[in-house]
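User: I'm putting together a teaching handout on how sequence relates to shape, and I'd like one worked example. Could you take RnfABCDGE type electron transport complex subunit D from Serratia symbiotica, show the sequence you're using, and then write out its predicted structure as tokens right after it?

Assistant: Happy to. First the sequence, then the structure tokens directly below it.
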Amino acid sequence: MHKKHILIFLLSISAVLVCGFSGIYHSAAESPGHSLLRYVSGQMVPFLCAIVLGTVLSVMILRCAGMTSNRNNLICCGLIIAAITPLSTPFWLIVLATTGGFIFSRMTFRAGGITHSLNAAVSARLIVFFFMLPHLVQGINLAGTDGWSGATPLQARKICQAIQHPCIAYPLSELFAGHWNGAPGEVPKTAIMVAAIVLLLSGLIRLSPMLWGMLGFCLVWCICKGGEADVLLQQLLMGSFIFALVFMLRNHFTGQLPVGYQCVHAFIYGALCVLFRIYGPFAEGTLLSLIAAQLMTGVLLVSHRRIMRISDP
């Protein structure tokens, strides 16, 4: 990317992060003993320092192994890691996940003329996921644990479904404002949409994959649930689906794909997000959807090219 494009991306995701941190702060503003100074010094600063420390450690380890690191990639992926990692994640785990994410992202293989690898941010979040697995329905009595605390609208809905209790409807204004606990990137929907417009106008992302991702989400939701439009809109605004649609669908893997396959990848991602939410044991399915969509798209592309090679005279 050109320096101008990198700057636009950094400013866009930084604005989303600032709004996300602000939304999380306001969600706990009524808690006893809660103050801005305590929030910044006790949560935000250690959280960001852990990501910086993990990034530096990964650079040192890779350098010892004779590999170099791209500075722009480190900064961009580091900010995405900050956006998709829950603020409540322990310091040591953030350091471990960030370090491991950057190292694991260097593991690649080629198939079908495409270099396959996991993005550093996805790899880091996957490490956090394995260390902090949300509890299943059987452990719903463990209120307060990750995944069943009801801290986010998706978690609250999952709990209601598990105990067969009517789910409350969240006002759209509340969903756009995003005043709840969780990962900074899943909170500020208004900021994400503004950032999406900026990135589209600057040519950093394409509109067609985003539309196909939304189509996959809406189509599968209507098939599985047949719900009303307001319920569908609430689901679109909950969780980190939109953040990933804007900031995470364009990566080294999708950059090698033809435009048509980029749309296929986005459609699969949107469809899987719904399936994981409805039938999966966890409240959120964005991470698993990103990984599974990349795997399925890679298999489709390799199969398609082999079929075309066989059919050619």
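A couple of points you could highlight for students: The longest strand covers residues 109-111. The chain is about 65% helix and 0% strand.
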